[in-house]
Design a protein that fits this description.
Distance between the termini: 26 Å
Order of helices and strands: HHHHEEHEHHEE
Strand content: 5-15%
Shape: elongated
Number of strands: 5
Number of helices: 7
Length: about 200
């Protein structure tokens, strides 16, 4: 309230948010491009694939944090604009970077699917087919036990692959209502004003 009620302070904070927005956009752009590059890493053996999965997880988490931060910056900008800026204006930078993030995650998902086929990875069973020399020497004993063709995947790796292929909804900003255009009711009681939200269902208090 101290910021909202002081015009000079409010404008200063809006300028600060704009600076943070640009810095966040640069970092998010870097994360998106790096994640998208994984799609080009092909012809891997399982050992190298597993190392890249751990590396991609760091970038994935970095990207998700930056998306959350940028969305919060846009929300604060919208709130501090007090309706002087449209919602579309306030979220104008978040939406294209969120779309870029979606595209990067789709590329990452494609990379995982292709690697899963090439390396014969079964995430549901938490196993992969033995390959190379190891797979060659297991061919004879595996005649009597097909499970010997396979090797367990690290319990740490499976959740990382699942997270990286789960995607993310980035259309929150489109779905939230424009509160400055909503009809509201104010109740005065004992010298204080209380905001009463619009009733969504009949009978709600």
């Amino acid at each position: 309230m101290e910021i909202v009620e002081n015009e000079e302070l409010r404008k200063r904070e809006l300028d600060h948010l704009k600076s943070l927005e640009h810095e966040c956009a640069q970092l998010l752009g870097q994360a998106n491009l790096t994640i998208k590059e994984y799609e080009k890493k092909t012809g891997l053996d399982y050992g190298n694939y597993e190392k890249l999965v751990a590396e991609a997880q760091t970038w994935y988490q970095y990207q998700q944090v930056l998306l959350d931060i940028m969305l919060k910056i846009e929300e604060l900008t919208y709130a501090l604009s007090l309706g002087q800026l449209s919602k579309e204006n306030c979220y104008s930078m978040y939406l294209p970077y969120a779309k870029q993030a979606d595209d990067a995650l789709k590329a990452l998902e494609t990379w995982h699917k292709n690697a899963g086929v090439a390396l014969q990875i079964d995430l549901e069973a938490n196993r992969r087919r033995r390959q190379g020399i190891e797979g060659f020497f297991m061919n004879i004993p595996a005649v009597f036990n097909d499970d010997l063709h396979y090797k367990d995947i690290s319990q740490r790796t499976v959740p990382m692959i699942s997270r990286q292929t789960s995607g993310r909804r980035t259309d929150e900003a489109r779905e939230d209502p424009d509160l400055f255009k909503e009809d509201v009711r104010l109740i005065a009681k004992e010298g204080k004003l209380y905001y009463l939200p619009k009733l969504q269902k009949e009978g709600m208090i």
